[in-house]
Amino acid sequence: MKITVYGTMTCAYCFALKDWLSERGVKFEYHFIDVDYKKAKEMFEVSGGQTAVPFSTIEHDGELEKIVGFDRAKFNKILKEHGK
Amino acid sequence: MANKRVDVVIVGAGPTGLTAALYLARDGFAVTVLEQLVVGGQVATTNRIENYPGFAEGVSGLALAADFRTQAEKFGAKIKSAGAIDIQPSQDGFVVVTDDGELTARAVLVATGSTPKLTGIPGEKKFIGRGVSTCATCDGAFYKNQRVAVVGGANAAVQETLHLVNMVAHVDLVVRSELKASRVLLDQLDKLIQSGQVTLYQGFTPIEVVGGEKVSALKIKNNVRKTEKTLKIDGLFVFIGRLPNTGWLRAVELDVDGFVIVNNDLETSVPGIFAGGDVRSGSVKQIAAAVGDGAAAALSIRDYLSKC
Predict the structure, then answer these.
(1) Residue B39's closest CA among B84, B70, B74, B60?
(2) Are the C-beta atoms of residues B87 and B95 closer than 8 Å to each other?
């Protein structure tokens, strides 16, 4: 399972998600798209034009889940499926 | 989270919840604060705060929220990432049911704050996260050198307009009735209107968000002449007020708008359950007032706990 989170340096929800994943010992990549243009472009392409952060992707079991916002229920469901 | 017993559960880690946590923990009570989203609440999502005493040069919302947290934790308050689902009476006081287990407490403080209100106009819901936002601090960076509209006329709308002009090419500010922001903000706004960075549409009501893959325009209507105008924009930011976060709360009496009714001690219709901050009926929705509610609620809770 690979988790990638895209956020900005001024987004409290992004930091909250980052802390929440860290507290659970979940490994993830985090990209500040307001200072990393390449990653901003990547997020835009992967999300199909999403303009809200945090935006996360979870690659697992050959599938790509996309989560907009700090959606604890969705994260919980996927993490539980993977024993986290 | 295993079922744990504490003196006080505080639901919501905004200025009210964290202030109460600081006071109560400092008094030696076992306090757990539940937060389902962002510690600091609305404070943490505000770019710059200039009307909170003690910070003559202003302070970033994220920094202030972090300090609120640090100070509460310094005295032993525990902050848990969980959302409350219900408060039920029990033999020992109350059981707070959360989406991550249950907590037993002798008293509960509800400080869940509020959530941004949306206009409800056609197209708005479809474009949330794709051009429609309620957080300029979070999403403003997506609109560098683009045109955006802001809807709203109170402090939040003007404050966020002032923030957005640093990033975007232009802001159309749509105000349905009157501008009700503080003088210092209006003075700054006037300068931006004079310089052409902001265009003010006062007396206009937004009627539709238009776009294909993403937002391309906002239709507005003149309240008097009933004429329509189309503003070409790439993003829309909505700041028209807030709704109380009480959808989960069945245990206590609410007013007609869903805010929690309290007495002078900030106690709700159920003895032992208190409420304060933006979620309280009649609150003025200011950080300083929310902090004051936190202190007042803590003293009332301390008094309540000393009697039971």
Answers:
(1) B70
(2) yes
Taking CA atoms, what residue in A is nearest to B64?
A: A12
Residue with tokens 């032992």: B272
Pull the structure tokens for residue B95: 């059981």
| Cβ <8 Å between B142 and A51 | yes
Q: Do A73 and B61 touch (CB under 8 A)?
A: no
**From chain A, which residues contact B within 8 Å (Cβ)?**
8, 10-16, 19-20, 23, 33-34, 49-53, 68-70, 72-73
**How would you write the pLDDT of chain B (308 residues) with one tens digit per residue?**
657 899 999 999 999 999 999 999 999 999 999 999 999 999 998 888 888 999 999 999 999 999 999 999 999 999 999 999 999 999 989 999 999 899 999 999 999 999 999 999 999 999 998 899 999 988 898 899 999 999 999 999 999 999 999 999 999 999 999 999 999 999 999 999 999 999 999 999 999 999 998 899 999 999 999 999 999 999 999 999 999 999 999 999 999 999 999 999 999 999 999 999 999 999 988 999 999 999 999 999 999 999 97
